[in-house]
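Changelog-adjacent note: as of this version, every example in the card shows the full chain rather than a window. The one below runs 319 residues end to end.
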Amino acid sequence: MRVYDFIIFGAGGTGLAAAMYSARLGLKTLVLGASNNSELSIGGAITTTNIVENYPGFIKITGEELAKKIEEHARSYNSVEIREEKAVEIKRHESYFEVKTEESEYQSKTVLFATGTKLRKLNIPGNKKYENKGIHYCAICDGAVFRDKIVAVIGDSDTAAKDALLLAEYSKKVYIISREKNIRPEQIHLDRIKKNKKIEILYSTNVIGIKGDKVVNKVVLDKKYNGNNELKLDGVFIAIGRIPISDLAKKIGVRLNKWGEIMIDHKTSSTNIKGIFAAGDVTDKKFKQLITGVADGCTAAYSAYEHIKKLGGKQNGRT
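Full-length structure tokens:
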């Protein structure tokens, strides 16, 4: 059984930044991603973002490029290992944790949950039937398919706004369908939407069904638009939020809030269980961006280092 000082669940920007920092502190570190799970794959959710403009040091960079740079930084330390394995079980012992993946078993003095979130899906007629047949969740992945066509983005978040702006580069018409009276993007994205003649917002409107033949050709609305409850279009992009990936943390007794987010001490990134830390979108942090997740991941690495020192054990050959 391989022994580590710090095992990180999740290989997105938060987990990789934590690995970089833990290596600088002399901790033997293992990062576990999962190649068969898009949410837990190396690079994480930021890889599905087209353009990132709010990360210091880069005026404009793609999400994939930024994730790669953080990964390369983490891999530059010999004490960091990154494995494409999904953790399936964690057991707590007096001074260490035992971690099982689908392939191996590991032991570590401390662990970090940087598992992020998974996509929230619509529970309406037609959703399952037309997934990948006109229903999509990643504008950067699938937007080009809808060149000169009509699409809708369902949601009111900053993600929904950025998806709409990207889709407007390809499509001839983009609807944003929001159940709220307003949409909630960053101001810069809201300003860009208002200036874009291809984008139209339908406020206080719910999509209650999705119809089509072999592929999507319309959505059903709970209120009339131009005298009709059905809106003809060619594709639907869903951006209605995400769900924390916290099942493994819950099983070991980590405290969650009512939304399934891991509750942490925001000064230390620690949880209610000594030696277990959490950072990034899986936590109860209100403001969730890659930059804040990276900061909390580094804080968690330092807190893990402090915890190991208190144990009186060695970390990577150091006392």
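Structural remarks: The radius of gyration is 21 Å.
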